[in-house]
C-alpha cells in the first residue's frame, strides 16, 4: 500500500517465511539491535546527566563542551551492555519460542577485559 509518507507491505495468509533470507538477515539485524541498544542507553544517561544528545546509527553528538562527558558515558554504557549475558539470553529466548528445535551452545567468552574500553582514547571517536 503506497501512502504519502511510506510504502506498507501487508502479510497475506499463506505467505511463508523465506528461511534462507531469515538466516542471512538475522545476524546483521541482531548486531544493529545491539548498536541501537547502546545508543539508547547512552542517550538516556546523557539526558540524566543534563547533556544534549543526538545520534544516527553509530554517530553520537553533543555540544562541544560536553564531548568529554559524553565520551565517558558512552564507554560506561558499552561496558554495561556487553557485560550482560546477551547470547545466553538470546539462546534462552530461542529455546522458549522454539522448544522442538536444538540450538548449539553459546561459545565461551574470550579473555578481553571490557574495562579497558573505559581508558581507550580511540574506542569511539
UniProtKB/TrEMBL annotation:
InterPro entries: DNA-dir_Rpol_C_phage-type (IPR046950), DNA-dir_Rpol_phage-type (IPR002092), DNA/RNA_pol_sf (IPR043502). It is an enzyme of class 2 (transferase). It holds the Pfam family RNA_pol. Keywords: DNA-directed RNA polymerase, Nucleotidyltransferase, Transcription, Transferase. It catalyses: RNA(n) + a ribonucleoside 5'-triphosphate = RNA(n+1) + diphosphate. Its EC number is 2.7.7.6. One of its GO terms (cellular component) is mitochondrial DNA-directed RNA polymerase complex. GO terms for molecular function: DNA binding; DNA-directed RNA polymerase activity. It comes from the Eukaryota. GO terms for biological process: mitochondrial transcription. Signal peptide: none annotated. Residues 2-99 form the DNA-directed RNA polymerase C-terminal domain. Gene3D superfamilies: 3.30.70.370. Belongs to the phage and mitochondrial RNA polymerase family. This is DNA-directed RNA polymerase. The lineage of its organism: Eukaryota, Viridiplantae, Streptophyta, Embryophyta, Tracheophyta.
